[in-house]
Amino acid sequence: MSAKPDKSAKAGSIELLQAPNLPMDADAILQDFTHYFGRMLGRRTIDVKSPFLYQAVVYAARDRLMERWSQTRKAAQRDDTRRTAYLSLEFLMGRLLRNALLNLGIEDETADALNRLGLDLEDVIDSERDAGLGNGGLGRLAACFLDSCATLSLPVIGYGIRYQYGMFHQRIENGYQIEEPDSWLREGFPWEIERIEYAQTVRFGGRSIVYEDGNGVTRHAWADTEDVLAVPYDIPIPGYRNNVVNTLRLWSASAPHAFDLGEFNAGSYADAVATQNEAQNITMVLYPNADSENGQELRLRQQYFLASASLQDLLSGWITRHGENFEDFAAKTCFQLNDTHPAIAVAELMRLLIDVHELGWDEAWAITQKSMAYTNHTLLPEALETWPVSMFRRLLPRVLDIIYEINARFIVEISQQWPGDNDRIARMSLIREGSEPMIRMAYLAIVGSFSVNGVAELHSRLLREGLFRDFAEMWPERFNNKTNGVTQRRWLAACNKPLAELITDKIGDGWTTELTELGRLAEFADDPDFQRAWRKVRQTNKTRLARDLQDRTGLVVNPATLFDVQVKRIHEYKRQLLNLLHAVYLYQRIRGGHETVPRTIIIGGKAAPGYVMAKKIIKCINNVSQVINSDPAMEGRLQLIFYPDYNVSAMELICPAADLSEQISTAGKEASGTGNMKFMMNGAVTIGTLDGANVEIREAVGEENFFLFGLTVEEIAELRGRYSPSAIIDADDGFGRVIAMLESGHFNRFEPGVFDSILQSIREPSDPWMTAADFRSFVDAQERAADAYRDRAGWTRMSILNSASSGRFSTDRTMRDYNEDIWNLDPILLDGT
Ligand code: 26Q
């Protein structure tokens, strides 16, 4: 891959694309870096702190992606291959530079080039801001999927929104979460290419009209709309050393004309410019809700904006290749809906095919149903999206017509299968009747798709038996499971270099593209030399995290302690409270003179700004932390740290350093979890409930290498109705003392009452999360974990076996599963490969 540039090649795009690829050696990279830094960015002096260093490095790397990118596009175009569009309101990409260099295979060369200027590539990499265009698991999953699809040469394009403001930054003030805007584009985002030539128009408002066309056919149209321009920005997604570069296309909203001339001539210049603003608002900010809090009109605009722009983009590409012949469209196109957030695409595809491309209903419906596939990510009934019909009528009247028509035909189908079963019709209808009729987006997605999947085996089973039971009965063949994964390129190779090297020394580097290769580590689990090397690496990583913790919080952390970590969105069902109760329990035990394994408990995560209880939990963690960390009796024994502003880059530092991974949700509530997989891959041992993918993790690693506790889904269901947390607290001295201390105000001396609502929630018989029910079992499991940690060799063995057993939890496997059962894509064949 280091051919010299062909000096005889003519400039002009076609010739350039066919020229040999740029050289990948340090000399060439240095030359390009210098060019971009000096000539393009116009900077003269190399200052270690300059943001332009980062930009110049990105441009040098991007050049090497660019040529592979157009070769990938060309190959897909040439073969007219079947492709998948992954529609998602979130892509939580994090930093892109290390990943690009790793996948191109030029990390050492780039480091070398910068070294010659006295610069450290690591500093440059660390200066990149996270692209935080997502809330948590669902958004990060989409990002891991893209990496794996490119690596498997699968023709998959991601479609999303280019939010001006991503996930908010979290600051902690007096223990409280303060949100600060994430203006991640402020210094420019050098990875993206604006593609104004592919802009699309998206319509809102107006009214739905019926007319007769020239041939006497009744047609529908959408008139008097307010239009918004969708401008795509493309980001390259490189595969791992296979020369494939896929695309993430993010839409940005603007007014269709610079400003409206009519209004301008009428003298209202300011109003005309303000119209511009209204359009731009659509893609201004990511909604920071991890779940629920439905119903914001701007959010519906975002969803429709993404669906409409993406579908129009795909259709216009289709028409370029096939004209107005849609016979093969469904055979060549698949849409994967990342939860119901883009589910309006079902109705929008119908609208485009019928109103714009003049297909009949049946033909359009057959195409839609054969091309859409839906992934569900939640089991919380309150998190299922619904929209008021009235809002739809105002914003998307023609789309509403179509949803009603889909529903009418669907209800006919139900009554054919279950004549006279009106309850069933009411249960399954796409419209939930009531004083404010609502559209059920999940049902629209199911009715309009050929595939419906959950994200872990347990989750998929519970969907079939619970939330979507009626639908699974009607169409059992539609329902399937695709257990989540994570990409080992980011979550091991890139974020844990020392461990990656140790592993590669032992078993070769096959694991970077076939994670089950890690299984070969198992035979060294008891090898003393390997164990020593393993511990040394983990110690290095813990020291690195300790430094980061000190930078962020000022607390001095001892890397020899057990690192007990829970990082994820703050939500009651994830039960950070249970973790906190255990911290208080340990605090009391140590004060009572008991010896325990020295522990550092780390909790991190953001609360949705409107989620009052979650924000209280953050405050409570910080208050307890304050008391514990300033008590001399805890010195060297127990620390509790809240990790502020947790994000993707933070996890890259945290997961290689964790000993114990907390996956402690109430059984039946966490759809899958993916943090659990990142920790496991890096050698942490899990303490967890039988929830989400924990079940499969435990199966893979063996029950003796997993600290299980808590009620099962069935036991939780059985306990409801006769649950009495206060009785549990009264019957358990240790638990009683924990609650008593919290209720005494010990942790909020000068803030009386601040934790009353939290404490009440634990004592509430209707507490959906049943925190008290699992307390004793959790504490016992924690004690078993601590005992196991005392046995150094035993723990190291468990650590190695966890990593060795993580092979199934690669998104490479997940994407192969999607491809075999849902997408059926042929890999892209590049010229000369
Ligand atoms: C809802 C309404 C309005 C605005 C935003 C939202 C919203 C946004 C994000 C609702 C849900 C989300 C994200 C959900 C999510 O991340 N779910 C997680 O998905 C992971 C990947 O499948 C699973 O591993 C987790 O178990 C699941 O919680």
Task: Write structural notes for this entry.
By secondary structure, the protein is of the alpha/beta class. It has 34 helices and 25 strands. Strand 11 and strand 12 form a beta hairpin. The longest helix has 29 residues, at 51-79. The model is unreliable at 1-17 (pLDDT under 50). The structure holds ligand 26Q. Residues 135-138, 141, 287, 289-291, 293-294, 299, 377-378, 455, 484, 670-674, 692 line the site of ligand 26Q.
Topology of this structure?
Elements: H1 13-18, H2 26-40, H3 51-79, E1 83-87, E2 91-94, H4 97-104, H5 107-115, H6 121-126, E3 131-133, H7 137-151, E4 156-161, E5 169-173, E6 176-180, E7 193-194, E8 200-204, E9 207-212, E10 218-223, E11 226-238, E12 245-254, H8 261-265, H9 269-281, H10 297-322, H11 329-332, E13 333-338, H12 345-356, H13 361-371, E14 372-375, E15 386-388, H14 389-395, H15 397-417, H16 422-428, E16 431-432, E17 438-440, H17 441-447, E18 451-454, H18 457-465, H19 469-474, E19 479-481, H20 488-494, H21 497-507, H22 528-553, E20 562-567, H23 576-591, E21 599-604, H24 612-629, E22 638-643, H25 648-654, E23 660-663, H26 675-681, E24 685-688, H27 694-701, E25 707-708, H28 713-719, H29 725-730, H30 733-743, H31 756-763, H32 771-790, H33 792-804, H34 811-823
Parallel strand pairs: 1-4, 1-13, 4-12, 13-14, 14-18, 18-19, 20-21, 20-23, 21-22, 23-24, 24-25
Antiparallel strand pairs: 2-3, 5-6, 7-11, 8-11, 9-10, 11-12, 15-17, 16-17
Ligand 26Q binds at residues 135-138, 141, 287, 289-291, 293-294, 299, 377-378, 455, 484, 670-674, 692.
